[in-house]
Amino acid sequence: MRVGTEETRLVVLRGNSASGKSSVAAGLRDTFGRGLALVGQDTIRRVVLRERDRPGAVNIGLIDVVARHALDAGYHVVVEGILYADHYGEMLARLRADHRGPTHGYYLHVPFAETLARHATKPQADEYGEAEMRDWYRDLDLLPGGAETVIGADSTLSGTVDRIMRDTGLAHLPALEH
Q1: 27 close to 13: Cβ distance less than 8 angstroms
Q2: How far apart are CA 46 and CA 89, in angstroms?
Q3: Which stretch of 6-15, 45-54, 168-177 has the lowest confidence by average pLDDT?
Q4: pTM of whole model > 0.90?
Q5: Can you tell me the distance from the alpha carbon of 61 to that of 98, in angstroms, rounded to the nearest whole number?
Q6: Which residues of 52-73 are buried (b: 16+ CB within 10 A; e: fewer)?
């Protein structure tokens, strides 16, 4: 089933824990303004459903439904999260194939040691530590078919946001009245 319009943009932003996904997504929305929906895996999986990340989990379908609904309502959409390729890849491939407008995928590639350093600065740093992060970490867990641009740890937050704004064309689109 086709989703969105030829004008809507779909951005899939993936990477390991503490790679900067949520910060980049927030930066994209702050830069763009109204009309850009953030569909965060952590929000849907951990807050809405309080669900563990596993193959076939309910959050996978709910992320898909929320992204599709927002695209059909005329919003540009950023889907962000760890979104393991083996758990979420099939859903993301269908969403990409069904989207009428441009779709862009990015993978934030940050070495494990750097993710630990970044995690230590986060408000939830006491909720989980190195052992959990090591268990979650997957080096270059890319989607098949070259669907993603890899952005390294050397890219600054503002540099990454600017790049994605330019690559996707969001930099040249007006904010919406939603």
Answers
A1: no
A2: 19
A3: 168-177
A4: yes
A5: 15
A6: ebeeebebbebbbebbbebbee
Q: How many helices (H) and strands (E) does the chain have?
A: 7, 5
Report the Cα 166 to chain-centroid distance in Å.
17
Answer whether 95's CB lies under 8 Å from 68's CB: yes
CA distance 117 to 41: 22
Domain boundaries, the chain: 10-172
Q: Can you tell me the distance from the alpha carbon of 13 to that of 5, in angstroms, rounded to the nearest whole number? A: 20
Residues 116-132: pLDDT tens digits?
777 767 767 677 777 88
Type of residue at 111: P
Closest C-alpha to 76, from 37, 42, 123, 45? 37
Q: How far apart are the first and last CA of the chain?
A: 24
State the DSSP H helix or E strand holding residue 38, giving kind and residue range, or none if neither.
Answer: strand 36-40
The 103-109 sheet, strands edge to edge: 36-40, 76-81, 10-15, 103-109, 149-152
Q: Which CATH number is 10-172's, of 2.60.120.10, 3.40.190.10, 3.40.50.300, 3.40.30.10?
A: 3.40.50.300
Q: Supply the pLDDT for residue 96.
A: 97
Distance in angstroms (rounded) separating the CA atoms of residues 29 and 160: 13
